């Protein structure tokens, strides 16, 4: 029952995140005007605003002008629902659950916006420091809270240094995101911090090499790093311990 509620909540939140992804980079209000077709500006009727179902029922087209609605819209809703179910299964009904549901919710638009416009908006990242800290404080685990603050400081400082020394390879949006991920991963433990950070670099490097090999990018092409950081952080939330054991076995094989 709890997982089913998480799935429904994820679909609803995912529908809102589509608005965030579209409007935040354009500095538009998230409230007004009401949801409408970008092509013909016709308001979206309430019955056409049901996550996933409406897209399928309309055949992926606007009910008024019949312009195609990108398949990314229902995929975002489904991905958010899947993340909410996974997070709920991971933490159960606990005081930590709201904090990590929030992390999952902001990870989706941040990754997509970074892919679209190569920017991690301050409007999402900066308030999330206060919101994340407040939600984690609900757990009243002050040892974990102190570790979270320390990890936030370490990752922010480390990424800031990299951005200063190598400005072409690291943006200050990545720096601010690193501190935020440090807050959430630090609460879980130092292994989550290191695994999340290392996995982010591993994923980012792998994608970069793949793009170079397939000639879809050159050495001067700016490649968004935020999605890799977020993916690494979420992987650490779910699997820090087994990933740490695997990394260790690769570095120090038995026998």
Automatic annotation (TrEMBL):
<dbReference type="GO" id="GO:0032259">
    <property type="term" value="P:methylation"/>
</dbReference>
<dbReference type="Pfam" id="PF01478">
    <property type="entry name" value="Peptidase_A24"/>
</dbReference>
<feature type="transmembrane region" description="Helical">
    <location>
        <begin position="99"/>
        <end position="117"/>
    </location>
</feature>
<feature type="domain" description="Prepilin type IV endopeptidase peptidase">
    <location>
        <begin position="102"/>
        <end position="208"/>
    </location>
</feature>
<keyword id="KW-0489">Methyltransferase</keyword>
<keyword id="KW-0645">Protease</keyword>
<dbReference type="InterPro" id="IPR050882">
    <property type="entry name" value="Prepilin_peptidase/N-MTase"/>
</dbReference>
<keyword id="KW-0472">Membrane</keyword>
<keyword id="KW-0997">Cell inner membrane</keyword>
<keyword id="KW-1003">Cell membrane</keyword>
<dbReference type="GO" id="GO:0006465">
    <property type="term" value="P:signal peptide processing"/>
</dbReference>
<keyword id="KW-0511">Multifunctional enzyme</keyword>
<dbReference type="InterPro" id="IPR000045">
    <property type="entry name" value="Prepilin_IV_endopep_pep"/>
</dbReference>
<comment type="similarity">
    <text>Belongs to the peptidase A24 family.</text>
</comment>
<feature type="transmembrane region" description="Helical">
    <location>
        <begin position="124"/>
        <end position="142"/>
    </location>
</feature>
<feature type="domain" description="Prepilin peptidase A24 N-terminal">
    <location>
        <begin position="10"/>
        <end position="91"/>
    </location>
</feature>
<feature type="transmembrane region" description="Helical">
    <location>
        <begin position="148"/>
        <end position="166"/>
    </location>
</feature>
<dbReference type="GO" id="GO:0004190">
    <property type="term" value="F:aspartic-type endopeptidase activity"/>
</dbReference>
<dbReference type="GO" id="GO:0008168">
    <property type="term" value="F:methyltransferase activity"/>
</dbReference>
<comment type="function">
    <text>Plays an essential role in type IV pili and type II pseudopili formation by proteolytically removing the leader sequence from substrate proteins and subsequently monomethylating the alpha-amino group of the newly exposed N-terminal phenylalanine.</text>
</comment>
<keyword id="KW-0378">Hydrolase</keyword>
<protein>
    <recommendedName>
        <fullName>Prepilin leader peptidase/N-methyltransferase</fullName>
        <ecNumber>2.1.1.-</ecNumber>
        <ecNumber>3.4.23.43</ecNumber>
    </recommendedName>
</protein>
<feature type="transmembrane region" description="Helical">
    <location>
        <begin position="6"/>
        <end position="24"/>
    </location>
</feature>
<dbReference type="InterPro" id="IPR010627">
    <property type="entry name" value="Prepilin_pept_A24_N"/>
</dbReference>
<keyword id="KW-0808">Transferase</keyword>
<dbReference type="InterPro" id="IPR014032">
    <property type="entry name" value="Peptidase_A24A_bac"/>
</dbReference>
<dbReference type="Pfam" id="PF06750">
    <property type="entry name" value="A24_N_bact"/>
</dbReference>
<dbReference type="GO" id="GO:0005886">
    <property type="term" value="C:plasma membrane"/>
</dbReference>
<feature type="transmembrane region" description="Helical">
    <location>
        <begin position="196"/>
        <end position="213"/>
    </location>
</feature>
<keyword id="KW-1133">Transmembrane helix</keyword>
<feature type="transmembrane region" description="Helical">
    <location>
        <begin position="225"/>
        <end position="248"/>
    </location>
</feature>
<keyword id="KW-0812">Transmembrane</keyword>
